[in-house]
């Protein structure tokens, strides 16, 4: 055995979401501040006012579907609460946990799109003069950030 056996309690929904949302909100705030202090409008970075319509219904359907699928996947694995590694929290069990998870997903999605695609890709495209180089650099950096 390479790793000594340890007992890790299964994390609960909400134990990490608050910290993650605070950190991501800080990143989004920093990027929005940098854009506001620059000489380009927000629209230059693809930030425009959202339109009300079917998109919001689609967001609700996707979040609800993801919640349902996560419950199916979670129940398909044996109980690992006493296993050496318990990485994933259980799916949301009540309305509060579902709301927290949904808000967390929206914050993550918004921040990743804002930082990586809106801001960093646009700036690298301007600096390098090539959309392909900007895409490659942002894609590699984005991937490296998800190696964990």
Features:
148 residues, single chain, 0% strand, mainly alpha
Can you give a write-up of this model?
The structure is a single chain. With 148 residues, this protein is mainly α. The protein is 62% helix and 0% strand. It has four helices and no strands.
Which structural category do the helix and sheet elements fall into?
Answer: mainly alpha
Beta content comes to under 5%
- Mind telling me the C-alpha Rg? 19 Å
Distance between the termini: 22 Å
Q: Could you give the order of the helices and strands? A: HHHH
Query: Low-confidence spans: pLDDT under 50, at least 5 residues?
Result: none
Overall number of strands: 0
Overall average pLDDT:
80
For the largest beta-sheet, the strand count, sense and barrel status come to: none
The best one-word shape is: globular
Total of helices: 4
The portion of residues assigned to helices is 55-70%
Summarize, please:
The chain has 148 residues and is mainly alpha-helical.
Task: Summarize the SSE layout with pairings.
Blueprint: H1 17-37, H2 54-76, H3 95-128, H4 131-144
């Amino acid at each position: 055995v390479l790793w000594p056996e340890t007992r890790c309690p299964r994390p609960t929904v909400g134990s990490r979401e608050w910290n993650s949302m605070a950190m991501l909100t800080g990143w989004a705030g920093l990027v929005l501040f940098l854009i506001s202090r620059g000489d380009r409008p927000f629209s230059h970075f693809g930030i425009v006012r959202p339109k009300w319509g079917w998109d919001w219904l689609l967001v609700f359907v996707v979040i609800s579907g993801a919640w349902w699928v996560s419950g199916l996947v979670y129940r398909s694995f044996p109980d690992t609460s006493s296993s050496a590694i318990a990485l994933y929290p259980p799916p949301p069990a009540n309305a509060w946990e579902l709301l927290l998870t949904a808000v967390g997903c929206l914050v993550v999605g918004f921040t990743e799109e804002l930082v990586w695609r809106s801001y960093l890709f646009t700036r690298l495209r301007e600096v390098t003069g090539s959309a392909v180089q900007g895409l490659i650099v942002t894609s590699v950096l984005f991937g490296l950030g998800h190696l964990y």
